[in-house]
Amino acid sequence: MQRNSFIVILILVIFFVISFLTNILGPIIPDIVRDFNLSLGLAGFLPFAFFVAYGVMSIPSGLLVEKYGEKKVLLWAFMVAFAGAFLFAVIPGFSIALLSLFLIGIGMAMLQVVINPLLRVAGGEEKFAFNSVMAQLFFGAASFLSPMLYSYLVRNVHSGGDGFIIGILNNLVPENLKWVSLYWVFAVIALLMVVVIAVIRFPKVELRDDERIDVGNSFKELVRNKYVWLFFLGIFCYVGTEQGIANWISQFLQTYHGADPGTTGASVISYFWGLLTIGCLLGLLLLKIFDSRHVLIIFTTGAILSLLLALFGSKEMALLAFPATGFFASVMYSVIFSLALNSVPNHHGTFSGILCAGICGGAVVPLIVGGLGEMVGLKLAMLFLLIPLGYILSIGLWARPLVTNDRVGSLKELFESKA
């Protein structure tokens, strides 16, 4: 049990690292645009390079896990992520950035496939729900902290900051590219994770039927089911919306309100992820009381109104409304995913792999926003996000799950069930 508890802690750390590396792109996009002299359209290829890796690797990663085991896939994932981060840290440039982000994205996609079944086995079935919530908290904490690290580094590297680490980064990072120091940090984190995982013994994971990916008969049966594609599109739209907002917040605030990306922009993105995490906790409570479809409709409506306020309100409104969109987006992924699995009677492992491939929406939607931004300006371009949000809203209207979410009859019953 001691070993398994340690594995649970390691998995929580991996969730933290995934989020830390995944959600830093938004704060640094204005720096990349400025330092590499990019158009908004070209900048849109940055999240595309990262998230398209999920579409490429989600299903193959499941097959790799079944053939080679969790430990090897975890090692390979962090080695690929290290290679991507180190490459860009040593040779900073736009084309290298695209390759670097694609490699890091492949590593993160591999990790996502491994860690949930591993968490179930290491922590025990009876604690899986609790540990899953803890994992989301770690994920959210990293999303909140990574923009703060970015702010700290750009304020201190080559800016008179002292300390051992800042001194090393001063020697490694070009003076006109202070934000590249983040990729040295990423490279070190990924390398440390390789070392830690290499020396740890992992428990044997027997995948349940609903965790296995079958690209044969199960896949063929699922692709003939229209609801599989409708819910795939739901995940696609959610991740596209999440990244379409997070990746363009800082650029929007700089363009329309003159906000400093290194301080104000990073802070707003940090609060966006922080409120998304808090919203997850509130969502857990609401899902014990209300039908998940109704929760999805209410929260999506809140996200739409918040986005419109952020785009067309004053600077003060934007500073509050952008984080509010994170709060209202918080329940979307889990509700869509659970509605999807509850709408199909079998082959849940393969279906989960198809749904995870929908994470590539984070590649497409920010790219579309960037391309539209070249033609009509970023403010009007971000109105495109109303289309995926509208589709998510529609899920709450047409979804007909075979099993609805378990609810309590009263608040008293809720607290009695927790006792």
Draw up the topology in text.
Layout: H1 2-22, H2 25-35, H3 40-43, H4 45-68, H5 70-90, H6 94-123, H7 128-156, H8 164-172, H9 181-199, H10 217-223, H11 226-246, H12 249-257, H13 261-286, H14 292-312, H15 315-329, H16 332-341, H17 348-357, H18 361-376, H19 378-381, H20 386-398, H21 411-418
The gyration radius over C-alpha positions equals 21 Å
CATH level-two architecture = Up-down Bundle
Structural class, by secondary structure, is mainly alpha
Low-confidence stretches: none
Please work out how many helical segments DSSP would assign. Answer: 21
Listing every helix as H and every strand as E from the N terminus to the C terminus, the arrangement reads HHHHHHHHHHHHHHHHHHHHH
Identify the CATH homologous superfamily.
MFS general substrate transporter like domains
Largest sheet features? none
How many structural domains? 1
The percentage helix is: over 70%
